[in-house]
Amino acid sequence: MEIIIQPDSQQASQVAARIVARTVREKPHAVIGLATGNTPLQLYRILVEMHREQGLDFSGVTCFNLDEYLGLPQAHPSSYHSYMWAHLFSLINVAKERIHIPDGLAQDIPASCRKYEQAIRSAGGIDVQVLGIGTNGHIGFNEPSSSLQSRTRIKTLTDETRRSNAAGFGSEAAVPTHVITMGLGTIMESRLCLLLAFGKKKARAVAQTVEGPVTAMVPGSVLQMHPRAILVLDREAASELKMAEYYSWVYEHKPGWQKY
């Protein structure tokens, strides 16, 4: 697990964007897993700028989103379909047929989840999976107690998560109670897991993920077992890490060929 601590979320997002861009340039047909929420917004803005100003080409890239609310039509303003098209897909040259987002209106949810897993396998697996982390340590919508080997499935949201997402719906009561999410086992099969976390409210979850035990009660902690997980944090999100000074020293003294 590599920990990169930056002064603020903008500089952290710049590092994350360079990691994604390097992957796309080195592998034009890369498969990218994408997250939603407030955390990756700056990352997506920077990738759009790279596309417009540097010619970063997404025409061969395939995208898979982590999750979607159950019961929301794609056109709903709070759906993750709407989010992704507003903040990324409509602003870059990704092919529509290469975009995959779980179907929140699927009539047969288990079959739809199996189909999603098969689509990931058929695409060759995910090269870079962008992740955020919840205040309770969830990644994707894998809430505490999720199986560390879980696959894409329906999941019930905790009250804490629904409160955190209430702003997008106007009230906590309006937030759906169920989602479809990639499982932890699915996420862990990605070749690179790139987790972003910003702000003091994420500090406890980050500390538990990085320096605590591997446990289903902190789903993000499973990344300790991943062969290539990179966590890009701002100073506030890193503020409860006991070894923060060491992580910063390591990053500052990386050989030139390892830097982003």
Mean pLDDT: 97
Overall structural domain count: 1
Sheet with the most strands: spatial strand order: 1-10-9-6-2-3-5
| CATH-scheme architecture | 3-Layer(aba) Sandwich
Strand-residue proportion: 15-25%
Order of helices and strands: EHEHEEHEHEEHEHEHEH
Biggest sheet character: 7 strands, parallel
In angstroms, what separates the terminal alpha carbons? 16 Å
CATH class equals Alpha Beta
Rounded to an integer, what's the Rg over CA atoms?
Answer: 17 Å
User: How helical, in percent, are the residues?
Assistant: 25-40%
Which labels suit this protein?
260 residues; Rossmann fold; seven-stranded parallel beta sheet; three-stranded antiparallel beta sheet; 16% strand; globular
